[in-house]
Design brief:
The termini are far apart. With 341 residues, this protein is of the alpha/beta class. Helix 6 packs antiparallel against helix 7 and helix 7 crosses helix 8. It is globular and about 70 Å long.
Length: 341
């Protein structure tokens, strides 16, 4: 069990991340690649990623076990500002911090190496000469990110935006208390403590620093937090997600996928769906969408379904309702005036 203890000041400093964190998504996706579960959600992604992934990942495999602790330095706080910024921060990690966290990794489960524990030879080699081996790690990370994460980034962004919209509604409806209570079921808000199913028993005391909530596409089943209590508190938790098939290398979609998209987009031409797409704004339930667009509830639901199939809208359940948000593709379409109005 993980227990995060809040003060009144911490509640006032709870915040949602503004975008997906590139390094968290990359590291957590490496877990998903080796996991045989969630076939419906990740099965096709695993197949496509493995086809593209033809480079070495031995260093990643050594630093990211299938379960349990992995070093905090792999997910620097700068990763929330983008892939390149995060990678630069990782490149600048101090050797003493790297050594300390690698010792924890060698000890297993993040509990510390303990006296007399012999580190695996390759891990010891990495720790003794990180300046030599860090470039190899960075190279593997880049290659893996290009193969398994980058082709899906637009879809990942859309899912996180939808998650932010749902949590933002909870915050507006009832403040930080309602926001924390609205998080996925594995997270339970029992004020002033947020509890989470966790592999080890642990208490985190925020002590006025607040908490960054970082929704993640590739985080599944349980939330994740940093091991070092001195680092800025962050809770990475599973966002509601549905993975769409991505084109290889981020290039043009495969013919069958592109043909289906063209057929679906063709259904969008017309004044009503233009109005409906614009009416979604920063997020709308089906009832709100019907009211804003001046259409019936059934019509609003049908239009939202077509736009969701076209990749223009993402839909998440919010309480007893569903919340529609515009994806980056939908926003670009509106901005470019490609939808008739």
């Amino acid at each position: 069990m993980l227990r995060i203890h809040f003060t009144g000041v911490d509640l006032a400093r709870v915040r949602m991340a503004g975008r997906p964190d590139a390094l968290w998504e990359t590291i957590l996706s490496f877990h998903r690649l080796r996991d045989r579960r969630d076939v419906r959600l990740f099965g096709e992604w695993r197949t496509e990623s493995r086809i593209r992934l033809n480079s070495e990942t031995r260093t990643l495999g050594m630093l990211i076990p299938s379960r349990g602790y992995f070093p905090d330095f792999l997910t620097p706080v700068e990763g929330r500002y983008g892939w390149d910024v995060g990678l630069d921060a990782l490149r600048g990690i101090r050797p003493e911090r790297m050594r300390r966290e690698l010792e924890l990794l060698g000890g297993g489960s993040g509990a510390g190496s303990g006296a007399g524990v012999a580190l695996p030879p390759r891990l010891r080699e990495f720790m003794d000469d990180s300046a030599k081996h860090l470039p190899r790690l960075l190279g593997e990370l880049r290659a893996y990110h290009r193969a398994a994460v980058e082709p899906y980034w637009t879809h990942i962004q859309a899912q996180i935006e939808a998650e932010r919209a749902a949590r933002g509604r909870a915050l507006l409806d009832g403040g930080a208390d309602e926001l924390l209570a609205s998080l996925p079921p594995m997270l339970r808000w029992r004020a002033p403590v947020l509890e989470c199913d966790y592999p080890v028993d642990r208490d985190v005391r925020l002590r006025g620093r607040g908490l960054l909530l970082q929704p993640s596409f590739f985080c599944r089943r349980t939330a994740v937090t940093l091991h070092d209590p001195q680092l800025p508190p962050v809770l990475v938790y599973p966002a509601a997600a549905q993975l769409a098939s991505a084109p290889a290398g981020g290039e043009a979609a495969r013919p069958a996928v592109e043909e289906q998209r063209v057929r679906t987009l063709g259904k969008l031409v017309g004044h009503t769906r233009s109005v409906v797409l614009r009416a979604i704004g920063d997020g709308a339930t089906t009832s709100e969408l019907a009211r804003r667009a001046g259409v019936s509830l059934a019509s609003a639901s049908q239009h939202a379904c077509v736009m969701r199939e076209a990749g223009l809208v993402t839909t998440l359940r919010h309480g007893n309702a569903v919340l529609h948000t515009v994806t980056p593709l939908g926003a670009a379409l509106l901005k470019g005036g490609a939808v008739a109005s």
